[in-house]
């Protein structure tokens, strides 16, 4: 079974969270820009394109999801 965990919190200022991590022995593992584009057709299934821009590469992934369960995942580009 493929389980996915995502946690999102709306905050007014991210700086206290960054300071907490830096002051409590968390190591910065990676840093990149992520752009997500979402599509829905009125049903339960959502299509999501995720573009990750790293320091020296870009990856694009297309997911089809149904109520947070990934149905299909396609790697569009890894360059």
Structure description:
- With 79 residues, the protein is mainly β.
- The chain has a domain of 49 residues.
- The protein contains one helix and four strands.
- Strands 1-2-3-4 form a four-stranded antiparallel sheet, with no helix packed on it.
- The two termini are 30 Å apart.
- 0% of the residues are buried.
What's the quick description here?
With 79 residues, the chain is mostly beta strands. It has one helix at 15-23, and strands at residues 33-40, 45-53, 58-66, 69-78. It has a domain at 30-78.
Would you spell out the secondary-structure blueprint of this structure?
Blueprint: H1 15-23, E1 33-40, E2 45-53, E3 58-66, E4 69-78
Antiparallel strand pairs: 1-2, 2-3, 3-4
Rounded mean pLDDT score: 85
Sketch the topology as an H/E string, one letter per element: HEEEE
Residues in β-strands, percent: over 45%
Strand tally is 4
Distance between the termini: 30 Å
Annotation field: number of helices: 1
Radius of gyration: 16 Å
Strands ordered across the widest β-sheet: 1-2-3-4
Biggest sheet character: 4 strands, antiparallel
Helix content: 10-25%
Shape designation? extended
Which properties best describe this structure?
4 strands; about 80 residues; extended; about 45% strand; 1 helix; mainly beta; four-stranded antiparallel beta sheet
